[in-house]
Write a structure and sequence with these properties.
With 179 residues, this protein is an alpha+beta fold. The protein has 5 helices and 8 strands; from the N terminus they run E-H-H-E-E-E-H-E-H-H-E-E-E. The chain is globular.
Length: 179
């Protein structure tokens, strides 16, 4: 089996994106995550959302979204957050999620993004350079149910800022039940 192809998603991919997240997440949260992915793909703003697909033999097998973040008092700092990431269950443990994350991070770094945030498993995201330590001074919009999962990755020094730094996320991520 060849390595998957990673490409930007298009509006024609929305049903495939929905199916990836419906299958990748437990039934207790899959509808919510699928809806979140689609809402993030539809977000419009001054900075684009980055939505990437992994395709294997013409079938969409994975999806990731990186959406813009605004830091209060430091609006000039370019930041994104990674969420959600999903891979079809029969394709997991094959490096597809890793490939999606790496491709997205490379694109963001090439675009001059300074910081990327994620709320997830430190053992998984730590492999990409995400750090709980770096994330401590950045306050997400809602209290975290699992604070150890809040992490950040810096491509470049965002400069000195007053701490703590509050943030505003894409509208689709601005719901307390996600945190």
């Amino acid at each position: 089996m060849n390595a998957p192809t990673i490409r930007p998603s298009t509006p024609a991919d929305l049903e495939s994106i929905r199916q990836v997240h419906l299958h990748a997440f437990p039934e207790s949260e899959n509808e919510r995550v699928a809806r979140l992915a689609l809402e993030l793909c539809a977000e419009t703003g001054t900075r684009p959302t980055v939505s990437l697909l992994a395709e294997q033999e013409g079938k969409v097998v994975g999806h990731v979204v990186f959406s813009p973040v605004t830091l209060t008092g430091a609006e000039e700092v370019s930041c994104y957050t990674l969420a959600p990431l999903g891979v079809m269950p029969d394709m997991q443990k094959r490096g597809i999620g890793t490939g999606l994350v790496k491709a997205g991070l490379k694109q963001l770094e090439n675009d001059g993004v300074q910081l990327v945030f994620v709320y997830g498993d430190p053992a998984y995201y730590g492999r990409f350079g995400f750090s709980q330590e770096l994330a401590r001074t950045y306050v997400p919009p809602y209290p975290l149910s699992l604070p150890f999962g809040w992490q950040a990755l810096a491509f470049s020094d965002p400069g000195s800022m007053a701490h703590p730094i509050h943030m505003r996320l894409a509208d689709a991520l601005s719901h307390p039940d996600l945190w």
